[in-house]
């Protein structure tokens, strides 16, 4: 019943050698090969907040440190989002309201000064763990979306001083070096590069410490910072030995890390945290640099600008049923093949390549790729790298009897969807059980190897299919359609060996 | 912050510190990491552990998460800085990381920064005794005038892991079921209930004198059980860092050992510039305890005439101890020194990462 | 794996003109407020609370055994109100799940024993794992998966949710409906 | 069982839908709302439900604590103003007032719940606990926290609404003393 798991009974071999279900694979139309998310290149396409579903331009996202302005995560339970709750409080009339009030009423301002009006105030609350912004002493706000007080980082100033100091120091050091170069003073010792590399650019510090007297003191030497060492060390409070602790008031490490800057130890300092943004990504084939997926910007859109799913190009194999499997005894499996394309497909089922052949395939692929990059290597482009293709980790544990002839699956026809008629074609070879529009059911015989009870039975085959490229633009002529013969390696997990003694 | 970004580079470098328990990630020039998340590469926590996926695949998955779920940047053509414990990071791991980042993610350059050294830049000093107490081990390395004194390096498996083992063993002795004590639960017990006690009480405890124990805590585990955490465990669980035996390998001893291996004229300065970093050093009371222990040691008969130091002083970095190293990397990478990284072009020519033994200047140096 | 045939006895189910198949042992309160847009299966023990507010589902929805569809309420200063609950097309709701969302998009898979808190918004092409618990007012964006651990993961182009989720759910719900057939005896 | 059925006491002004399962010695105080398909089973001892409680669909309140002696059964007393949401299973030994048991929460028989507590959706609580007032149990690992500021007030308003709406759509059980 669980379709998310059951998908994985049928796996296709991606060109990089990984086994994946067809729904997780892409088909690069330019290389005519299967691709998966592992062997493709991912890029951030657009940023959005997954709570308010607003698209945020990347420059703005960067400025806001990839956080959403208006949504807050609960710092206490980390999996839920805080929602703004409204309360009405009675506040004394403000001057402005007073004036409005005066217009409508005849009472004097003196008399109305004690008058109270209802005002809507907002606070943030978590509906899961009942955390509320009032818990940590944030006062209620008049506006729902903005002006929640930002937390201050206690080390911010000191950090900025140090950062400025170092940046000035390095810049200064660079200037000194350039000056030296200009003067052509060869002051370099061969040990310098060693220490240079390891860290703080020793020469700079030595100079600053006054060790290196040969360098004249340049103009804008950054002022050094007072050291921070202290004898004072935070003492353990005596209370800890006598007072019982309340676990509910001490944060867990997970809660602390929701605020990496302050890492509060008490729940009283758990402040609402701006929600981290999410991304939409586009995926690019590493071989030809074409996109296989490019989503739309709109965060709520489920459409793609470019989508090259393998499931809409490669015939899909499904297991309909399988007879009980016993070691060394042949059994029948029924497979359903679906043609997702608009052209008829001729399919031949063949043996999987042997190990040697597989190695040869990989070598050839590498060579092809290298020749490709060498030939197309422009001076500006940096060479793209591919993932090293691997040998398929899965080994079949049963022998498949190959059908003696190839067969044709009709093209997809959306209008035929409502035809439930099962067609049987006399011309079809014997192993074809039925046809229905673009689907075909075939029956094959398999013989599991010498396996034990409950061992998985895996069969594999190479599916040789014809594929016609559809003209990508309407401008192209129809006869530009090309036919290709492609291969896909398919591994089926047909079930486990049954215990025949109980039968 | 935008000022620096425009002045120095358009895309700020990514700074990571992949610890054995937690990974700190963020951008250079920022005052704190954006995220601290559990390290999800099993081989780092436990090098010998047999895992289904190899290190390369695990690292791809983990970096995928870092780039696309947390930092939200395309790694292509980005600069990456790694803060790492140079001496203790296995070559296999750093080379795998380099391969993953250059091959799979096509980053522009990688800069490996020695943890102990860059930690100093958070204080703008160039001499300190850096004590890193992490999850797997405590590593001590003196840095003098910006040079790491490698021969004085000290490391002992004193850290989060040994504390966790201690807590677990002691709770099981008290009759708590093994299966409810997951790593997460043990860590939570440590973080929320345990602390480092005072020296006097620790001595009394060691000598089996009776002291008034601190209060017990009833700790609910996953809603299915309530276990009692005895006061003794809360107070003395972290004593594993301060063992008193004939090996003399407790934290204070190895700190003194590190100092003693340094030249005499540098010792005083080092002892007065101690910097505590690493996750375990955020435990309550550890700093004051270390100070007391060290003071006792330098006045002890054995060290009196060898050490020639009179006091110890500690630094307070502008950070939480668990990301001090990261912060150093952030400061360092925000300067122009990041141009000293290994670039992708160079890596593709010589796929080798220089380290302490093998150093080939050609792969790190750009011309100039 | 091709979906196996599920047989039901003709006495237990009512089939409407629009192709809805509703088990007789369901609790459809306030049925005048419930709109099932055709080819919807409501299995045994499911409860749809049309009495609280309107409930509308699209085509090819599957509401499994003992699932509870319950419009959410919201508190106002003057009282509470229950809000209508809309479910899109091709949605699968697993056994024993409790749905109090404000809206559920199309092509959504909700596992068994899931709890969807009050006024959640579930967008198209998302997955809720078995046993996942969505706190009230959560938004689950398209192509995201809400896991048992309470984390939201995925996004367009990741493997948490298949990129071709739309086709997958259309195919799944349609063939589920086609294989949901009366037993012949 | 029919003998037990007679022991069900529904106070006036309580709204109890017809198709819920109530077995054994159960007292439902006035102002309560029991939704269809709820279960209240007094197996080993009586259950007394206080005023203004809401018991939703598939919620199951079950008294199955074995009494110390057969003539002194354990009485499960539930205070007023509690909410038992969809699919919650409650076997607690004692429940105070103003608690919320969210969807699919579970409270075992060795747990005592005081007042103002919230057991969040999906939390399973067992193991001899006594929840202090205003405890919130949340998350996958049943973390505890103390609610300082409770969002309250929706309870009575919701009851008012349900009392108005439910009689229009459901057959109700008659109140009897």
Automatic annotation (TrEMBL), chain A:
<keyword id="KW-0597">Phosphoprotein</keyword>
<dbReference type="GO" id="GO:0005813">
    <property type="term" value="C:centrosome"/>
</dbReference>
<keyword id="KW-1017">Isopeptide bond</keyword>
<dbReference type="GO" id="GO:0001725">
    <property type="term" value="C:stress fiber"/>
</dbReference>
<dbReference type="InterPro" id="IPR008603">
    <property type="entry name" value="DCTN4"/>
</dbReference>
<dbReference type="GO" id="GO:0005869">
    <property type="term" value="C:dynactin complex"/>
</dbReference>
<keyword id="KW-0206">Cytoskeleton</keyword>
<dbReference type="Pfam" id="PF05502">
    <property type="entry name" value="Dynactin_p62"/>
</dbReference>
<comment type="similarity">
    <text>Belongs to the dynactin subunit 4 family.</text>
</comment>
<keyword id="KW-0007">Acetylation</keyword>
<comment type="subunit">
    <text>Subunit of dynactin, a multiprotein complex part of a tripartite complex with dynein and a adapter, such as BICDL1, BICD2 or HOOK3. The dynactin complex is built around ACTR1A/ACTB filament and consists of an actin-related filament composed of a shoulder domain, a pointed end and a barbed end. Its length is defined by its flexible shoulder domain. The soulder is composed of 2 DCTN1 subunits, 4 DCTN2 and 2 DCTN3. The 4 DCNT2 (via N-terminus) bind the ACTR1A filament and act as molecular rulers to determine the length. The pointed end is important for binding dynein-dynactin cargo adapters.</text>
</comment>
<dbReference type="GO" id="GO:0030016">
    <property type="term" value="C:myofibril"/>
</dbReference>
TrEMBL record, chain B:
<comment type="similarity">
    <text>Belongs to the actin family.</text>
</comment>
<dbReference type="InterPro" id="IPR043129">
    <property type="entry name" value="ATPase_NBD"/>
</dbReference>
<dbReference type="Pfam" id="PF00022">
    <property type="entry name" value="Actin"/>
</dbReference>
<protein>
    <recommendedName>
        <fullName>Actin-related protein 10</fullName>
    </recommendedName>
</protein>
<dbReference type="InterPro" id="IPR004000">
    <property type="entry name" value="Actin"/>
</dbReference>
Automatic annotation (TrEMBL), chain C:
<dbReference type="InterPro" id="IPR011004">
    <property type="entry name" value="Trimer_LpxA-like_sf"/>
</dbReference>
<protein>
    <recommendedName>
        <fullName>Dynactin subunit 5</fullName>
    </recommendedName>
</protein>
<keyword id="KW-0206">Cytoskeleton</keyword>
<dbReference type="InterPro" id="IPR047125">
    <property type="entry name" value="DCTN5"/>
</dbReference>
<keyword id="KW-0963">Cytoplasm</keyword>
<dbReference type="Pfam" id="PF21711">
    <property type="entry name" value="DCTN5"/>
</dbReference>
<comment type="similarity">
    <text>Belongs to the dynactin subunits 5/6 family. Dynactin subunit 5 subfamily.</text>
</comment>
<dbReference type="GO" id="GO:0005869">
    <property type="term" value="C:dynactin complex"/>
</dbReference>
TrEMBL record, chain D:
<dbReference type="GO" id="GO:0070840">
    <property type="term" value="F:dynein complex binding"/>
</dbReference>
<comment type="function">
    <text>Part of the dynactin complex that activates the molecular motor dynein for ultra-processive transport along microtubules.</text>
</comment>
<dbReference type="GO" id="GO:0007052">
    <property type="term" value="P:mitotic spindle organization"/>
</dbReference>
<keyword id="KW-0206">Cytoskeleton</keyword>
<dbReference type="InterPro" id="IPR027777">
    <property type="entry name" value="DCTN6"/>
</dbReference>
<comment type="similarity">
    <text>Belongs to the dynactin subunits 5/6 family. Dynactin subunit 6 subfamily.</text>
</comment>
<dbReference type="InterPro" id="IPR011004">
    <property type="entry name" value="Trimer_LpxA-like_sf"/>
</dbReference>
<protein>
    <recommendedName>
        <fullName>Dynactin subunit 6</fullName>
    </recommendedName>
</protein>
<keyword id="KW-0963">Cytoplasm</keyword>
<dbReference type="GO" id="GO:0005869">
    <property type="term" value="C:dynactin complex"/>
</dbReference>
